[in-house]
Amino acid sequence: MMGSQGAEPELQSFLLDDKSKMKEVPPQTKRKSSKNQEKSEVVHLNGDDYYDPFIERNLEHPTTNGETLTHLLKASLGTGILAMPQAFQCSGLITGIFATVFVSFVCTFCSYSLVKCAHTLYRRTRVTAMGYADVAEVAFANGPAWSRRFSALTRQSVLWLLFVTYFGTCSVYTVIIASNFEQLFAHHMGYALNLRYFIAMLLLPLILLSYVPNLKYLAPVSMVANLLMSVGLGITFYYTLNGIPSISERPAVGSLETFPTFFCLTVFAMEAIGVVMPLENNMKTPKKFLGVFGVLNVGMGGVTVVYILLGFLGFLKYGDETKPSITLNLPTEDTAAQVAKICISLAVFCTYGLQFFVCLEIAWTKIQENFEKATIYHNYVLRTVLVTLSVAIAVAVPTIGPFIGLIGAFCFSLLGIIVPVVIEFATYWDRVTVWMTIRNALLISVGILALVFGTSNSVTDIITAYVPVPELPINATVTRTAAQ
């Protein structure tokens, strides 16, 4: 377990570097030896001037392969795992296993493709590191003629998609916290309150959490969140393994109508596209991030196994009673279950701060670019406004499942699947093969299908949950029955 000082780089690895490192550090200042300079002027690699960005990269506190793997697991094993049993409810036990592997493969491949393009662009542009938005901008700026005019727009689109994704995730976290405490309140007090009251009561604590000035002071909170989540998930696994029924009692295959919901929930749970580039940028040996047994493949392989286990066992145990968050299925009367609910709720509360800092960083950078007189006072006003908006959205739509599905369908389908594929086309536009065209066309089709059907399903579920069905007047009902 790392101390708070060592946890600061860990937290920073999750923040998006929307300030282009290409502009901050001129590549000429990074040259360390005349030998490297000669090499960059003479040797060519795949048609690109040779330039080794990894030798030139100068990091104060680089992360090892093991540390990067830990960060990747932390990013991927988030609160989305709590929705995996409901995802398996939508797909069926057996279909869920293969479909989860498929989703994992798609997400991993697209992340792999993004990093691979970044490595190529490092050499072309003589820089040592880029964020996701940087990669998108540079790929379009150096791509075919039609793409160059859209380079700046592409950068802004990626940044705001990341903002919407993490902002929506903050709202989902608020609903998860409130749902668990609502159950505990009803059990101990003997009466229930509307979930919206519990969400609203989180406003002040979340604002205070957002006032943590920087990541250094948030580091201990993050470490506590890791410990609490581990305890909560351990207890949850115990309950799912205790007294499970026969596999034959659960459907092996789900319906086509609910499969888009499965896909969106799983994509939301697994997708870590927002942290892939920051993690690679902070590595001591960035080349080890890729490869058959690289950090990315090993990490996502482990994540896939854990997600399949909890999704399979959770649905097998609770069947049609499976809730949007598996912790809501735990028996509230049991002390261990209460501990699990409290631990996971507090862990999600602590993690809210990390997700929030991503949104804050993007929004504050935009404000500073447009308003030179912005001060620390305005920064804290922005923090208050953003937290209030995230809680207000949660109060308006306090439904975990459709909310998660909507974010997974709209944001992660674009960021995690479609955009990386388009970036690959722009990066290698002068050497596109038939296989690349077929493969990427299939991936874009999967992303568009998830975007269209997943978004429509989630919006329909939200509308169904909150728009009352109009009742026919008694006279009209009698008249209609008589006519029949």
From TrEMBL:
A single cellular component GO annotation: vacuolar membrane
MF terms from GO for this chain are: L-amino acid transmembrane transporter activity
Name the membrane topology term.
Answer: Multi-pass membrane protein
Tell me where the transmembrane regions lie: 93-115, 158-179, 191-211, 218-239, 259-277, 289-316, 336-360, 380-397, 403-429, 441-467
Listed A to Z, the keywords are: Membrane, Transmembrane, Transmembrane helix
Q: Where in the cell is it found?
A: Membrane
Stretches for region Disordered: 1-41
InterPro entries membership: AA_transpt_TM (IPR013057)
Where in this chain does the record put each Amino acid transporter transmembrane domain? 62-458
**Record's protein name:** Amino acid transporter transmembrane domain-containing protein
Q: Which organism is it from?
A: Macrosiphum euphorbiae (potato aphid)
